[in-house]
Amino acid sequence: MDQPWVYIVLFGLVFIVYAKIMPKPSISKGQQNPTIYEIEETMEHFTAELDEQNKALIQLLAETRRDYELQAARLTSRIEMLEKQSGQVGQEIMKLGVTTEELQKQLSRQRTEPLSITPEPRQAFADIAVEVIDDKAEAVQSPMNMKVRYSELFTMYDQGKSIDHIAKKLGMNKGEVNLIIQLAKQEERLNAH
Protein backbone atom coordinates (compact mmCIF):
# COMPACT_ATOMS: atom_id res chain seq x y z
CA MET A 1 0.00 0.00 0.00
CA ASP A 2 2.81 2.30 0.57
CA GLN A 3 3.96 2.08 -2.96
CA PRO A 4 0.98 3.50 -4.85
CA TRP A 5 1.06 6.54 -2.66
CA VAL A 6 4.75 7.12 -3.37
CA TYR A 7 4.09 6.81 -7.10
CA ILE A 8 1.40 9.45 -6.88
CA VAL A 9 3.70 11.85 -4.99
CA LEU A 10 6.56 11.24 -7.44
CA PHE A 11 4.25 11.73 -10.36
CA GLY A 12 3.05 15.09 -8.81
CA LEU A 13 6.65 16.26 -8.27
CA VAL A 14 7.60 15.43 -11.83
CA PHE A 15 4.56 17.29 -13.06
CA ILE A 16 5.45 20.41 -10.99
CA VAL A 17 9.07 20.36 -12.20
CA TYR A 18 7.92 19.92 -15.79
CA ALA A 19 5.53 22.88 -15.38
CA LYS A 20 8.37 25.06 -14.07
CA ILE A 21 10.74 24.11 -16.85
CA MET A 22 8.29 24.57 -19.69
CA PRO A 23 8.32 28.12 -21.21
CA LYS A 24 5.20 30.13 -20.66
CA PRO A 25 3.37 31.22 -23.79
CA SER A 26 3.39 35.01 -24.36
CA ILE A 27 0.10 36.82 -24.14
CA SER A 28 -0.73 38.95 -27.18
CA LYS A 29 -2.16 42.47 -26.92
CA GLY A 30 -5.58 41.29 -27.88
CA GLN A 31 -5.61 38.79 -25.02
CA GLN A 32 -4.39 41.28 -22.36
CA ASN A 33 -6.65 43.05 -20.01
CA PRO A 34 -8.47 45.75 -22.03
CA THR A 35 -7.68 48.46 -19.44
CA ILE A 36 -3.92 47.93 -19.73
CA TYR A 37 -4.16 48.03 -23.51
CA GLU A 38 -6.06 51.37 -23.40
CA ILE A 39 -3.52 52.87 -20.99
CA GLU A 40 -0.64 51.87 -23.28
CA GLU A 41 -2.38 53.39 -26.31
CA THR A 42 -3.10 56.61 -24.39
CA MET A 43 0.54 56.85 -23.26
CA GLU A 44 1.80 56.31 -26.82
CA HIS A 45 -0.60 58.95 -28.13
CA PHE A 46 0.47 61.36 -25.36
CA THR A 47 4.18 60.92 -26.13
CA ALA A 48 3.52 61.42 -29.85
CA GLU A 49 1.69 64.70 -29.11
CA LEU A 50 4.51 65.84 -26.82
CA ASP A 51 7.05 65.14 -29.57
CA GLU A 52 5.00 67.16 -32.08
CA GLN A 53 4.64 70.06 -29.65
CA ASN A 54 8.35 70.01 -28.87
CA LYS A 55 9.21 70.10 -32.57
CA ALA A 56 6.79 73.00 -33.10
CA LEU A 57 8.30 74.89 -30.14
CA ILE A 58 11.83 74.33 -31.41
CA GLN A 59 10.83 75.58 -34.86
CA LEU A 60 9.09 78.63 -33.37
CA LEU A 61 12.14 79.36 -31.23
CA ALA A 62 14.41 79.12 -34.29
CA GLU A 63 12.15 81.48 -36.27
CA THR A 64 12.02 83.93 -33.36
CA ARG A 65 15.80 83.86 -33.09
CA ARG A 66 16.19 84.54 -36.82
CA ASP A 67 13.72 87.43 -36.60
CA TYR A 68 15.56 88.83 -33.57
CA GLU A 69 18.93 88.63 -35.31
CA LEU A 70 17.51 90.27 -38.45
CA GLN A 71 15.90 93.06 -36.41
CA ALA A 72 19.12 93.56 -34.42
CA ALA A 73 21.10 93.85 -37.67
CA ARG A 74 18.62 96.41 -39.03
CA LEU A 75 18.76 98.45 -35.85
CA THR A 76 22.56 98.34 -35.79
CA SER A 77 22.78 99.59 -39.38
CA ARG A 78 20.22 102.32 -38.62
CA ILE A 79 22.19 103.41 -35.54
CA GLU A 80 25.37 103.59 -37.62
CA MET A 81 23.57 105.66 -40.26
CA LEU A 82 22.15 108.02 -37.62
CA GLU A 83 25.55 108.40 -35.96
CA LYS A 84 27.04 109.26 -39.34
CA GLN A 85 24.29 111.83 -40.02
CA SER A 86 24.73 113.24 -36.53
CA GLY A 87 28.44 113.68 -37.19
CA GLN A 88 27.71 115.45 -40.47
CA VAL A 89 25.16 117.74 -38.82
CA GLY A 90 27.67 118.47 -36.04
CA GLN A 91 30.26 119.45 -38.64
CA GLU A 92 27.74 121.70 -40.39
CA ILE A 93 26.85 123.36 -37.09
CA MET A 94 30.54 123.91 -36.34
CA LYS A 95 30.99 125.48 -39.80
CA LEU A 96 27.98 127.72 -39.20
CA GLY A 97 29.40 128.71 -35.81
CA VAL A 98 32.78 129.62 -37.32
CA THR A 99 31.07 131.57 -40.11
CA THR A 100 28.91 133.41 -37.57
CA GLU A 101 31.97 134.34 -35.52
CA GLU A 102 33.75 135.63 -38.62
CA LEU A 103 30.72 137.71 -39.60
CA GLN A 104 30.48 139.15 -36.10
CA LYS A 105 34.17 140.07 -36.18
CA GLN A 106 33.73 141.75 -39.55
CA LEU A 107 30.72 143.70 -38.27
CA SER A 108 32.60 144.86 -35.20
CA ARG A 109 35.57 145.91 -37.37
CA GLN A 110 33.28 147.84 -39.70
CA ARG A 111 31.71 149.67 -36.74
CA THR A 112 35.07 150.62 -35.23
CA GLU A 113 36.80 151.72 -38.47
CA PRO A 114 36.66 155.48 -39.00
CA LEU A 115 35.14 156.84 -42.18
CA SER A 116 37.72 158.03 -44.64
CA ILE A 117 36.92 161.40 -46.12
CA THR A 118 37.78 161.90 -49.76
CA PRO A 119 38.54 165.16 -51.46
CA GLU A 120 34.90 165.51 -52.31
CA PRO A 121 33.40 164.96 -48.85
CA ARG A 122 29.86 165.76 -49.75
CA GLN A 123 29.74 163.35 -52.66
CA ALA A 124 31.50 160.58 -50.69
CA PHE A 125 29.22 161.12 -47.71
CA ALA A 126 26.18 161.05 -49.98
CA ASP A 127 27.38 157.83 -51.64
CA ILE A 128 27.89 156.17 -48.23
CA ALA A 129 24.48 157.37 -47.03
CA VAL A 130 22.83 155.95 -50.15
CA GLU A 131 24.61 152.62 -49.63
CA VAL A 132 23.54 152.46 -45.98
CA ILE A 133 19.96 153.32 -46.89
CA ASP A 134 19.99 150.71 -49.69
CA ASP A 135 21.41 148.11 -47.27
CA LYS A 136 18.73 148.92 -44.69
CA ALA A 137 16.01 148.73 -47.35
CA GLU A 138 17.29 145.33 -48.49
CA ALA A 139 17.39 144.15 -44.89
CA VAL A 140 13.78 145.23 -44.40
CA GLN A 141 12.71 143.65 -47.71
CA SER A 142 14.54 140.35 -47.15
CA PRO A 143 14.29 139.52 -43.46
CA MET A 144 16.52 136.80 -42.02
CA ASN A 145 13.50 135.05 -40.53
CA MET A 146 13.82 131.29 -41.15
CA LYS A 147 10.08 130.85 -41.58
CA VAL A 148 10.01 133.49 -44.33
CA ARG A 149 13.08 132.10 -46.11
CA TYR A 150 11.72 128.55 -46.03
CA SER A 151 8.02 129.31 -46.22
CA GLU A 152 7.17 126.25 -48.33
CA LEU A 153 8.92 123.96 -45.84
CA PHE A 154 7.09 125.48 -42.86
CA THR A 155 3.77 125.43 -44.69
CA MET A 156 4.08 121.67 -45.16
CA TYR A 157 5.40 121.26 -41.59
CA ASP A 158 2.44 123.20 -40.18
CA GLN A 159 0.08 120.99 -42.22
CA GLY A 160 1.48 118.01 -40.31
CA LYS A 161 3.53 116.52 -43.15
CA SER A 162 6.36 114.20 -42.08
CA ILE A 163 10.03 115.17 -42.29
CA ASP A 164 10.55 112.43 -44.90
CA HIS A 165 7.73 113.81 -47.06
CA ILE A 166 9.01 117.38 -46.79
CA ALA A 167 12.58 116.32 -47.63
CA LYS A 168 11.44 114.37 -50.70
CA LYS A 169 9.14 117.14 -51.88
CA LEU A 170 11.80 119.86 -51.59
CA GLY A 171 14.72 117.67 -52.68
CA MET A 172 16.52 118.17 -49.38
CA ASN A 173 18.20 115.91 -46.87
CA LYS A 174 16.16 114.90 -43.78
CA GLY A 175 18.93 116.19 -41.53
CA GLU A 176 18.85 119.52 -43.32
CA VAL A 177 15.07 119.82 -42.86
CA ASN A 178 15.43 118.96 -39.15
CA LEU A 179 18.21 121.53 -38.78
CA ILE A 180 16.11 124.29 -40.41
CA ILE A 181 13.15 123.49 -38.14
CA GLN A 182 15.39 123.51 -35.04
CA LEU A 183 17.02 126.80 -36.05
CA ALA A 184 13.59 128.38 -36.59
CA LYS A 185 12.49 127.25 -33.12
CA GLN A 186 15.66 128.77 -31.62
CA GLU A 187 15.06 131.97 -33.57
CA GLU A 188 11.51 132.17 -32.20
CA ARG A 189 12.80 131.67 -28.64
CA LEU A 190 15.40 134.42 -29.12
CA ASN A 191 12.84 136.83 -30.59
CA ALA A 192 10.44 136.09 -27.75
CA HIS A 193 12.97 137.39 -25.19
Give keywords.
193 residues, Arc Repressor Mutant, subunit A, 0% strand
Summary?
The protein has 7 helices and no strands. By secondary structure, it is an all-alpha fold. The model is unreliable at 136-142 (pLDDT under 50).
Structural category:
mainly alpha
From the spread of the alpha carbons, the general shape counts as rod-shaped
Largest sheet: number of strands, sense, barrel closure: none
Low-confidence spans: 136-142
Question: What's the alpha carbon Rg, rounded to whole Å?
Answer: 49 Å
Discrete helix count: 7
Helix content: over 70%
How many E strands?
Answer: 0
Q: Report the span from N to C terminus.
A: 140 Å
Task: Report the portion of residues in β strands.
Answer: under 5%
**SSE order, one letter for each helix or strand:** HHHHHHH
Mean pLDDT: 79
SSE order and pairing:
Blueprint: H1 2-21, H2 34-112, H3 121-141, H4 146-149, H5 151-158, H6 163-170, H7 174-192
Please, could you describe this protein's structure?
The chain is mostly helical and 193 residues long. Among the domains are: 55-111; 142-193, Arc Repressor Mutant, subunit A. It is built from seven helices and no strands. It has helices at 2-21, 34-112, 121-141, 146-149, 151-158, 163-170, 174-192. Helix 6 crosses helix 7 (174-192). It is rod-shaped and about 155 Å long. Residues 43-85 form a coiled coil. This is DUF2802 domain-containing protein. It comes from Paenibacillus radicis (ex Xue et al. 2023).
